[in-house]
Amino acid sequence: MEIKCHFCFETIPLEIYREEGDKQDFIVDCEVCCHPLHITAEWNDEEEDFDVEVDAG
Question: Which domain of life does the UniProt lineage start with (predicted)?
């Protein structure tokens, strides 16, 4: 999956593993500008994928 940085607006790859839980909350640094991004992910049974929200960390 890919997400967009709220600071530099670049698209960066993000891997989320269901083995780590159906609800996840973590911080990652943008690979381009190094600003922190707050990631909230929740498993969606209907789509069999995560619903992901990204905001400034």
Answer: Bacteria
Long-range contacts of 42-48 (CB under 8 A, 24+ apart): 43/18
Query: 37: which strand partners?
Result: 28, 56
Distance CA 16, CA 37 (A): 14
Q: What is the pTM of this model?
A: 0.85
Query: b vs e for 38-55, b when ≥16 Cβ sit within 10 Å of the residue's Cβ?
Result: ebebeeeeeeeebebebe
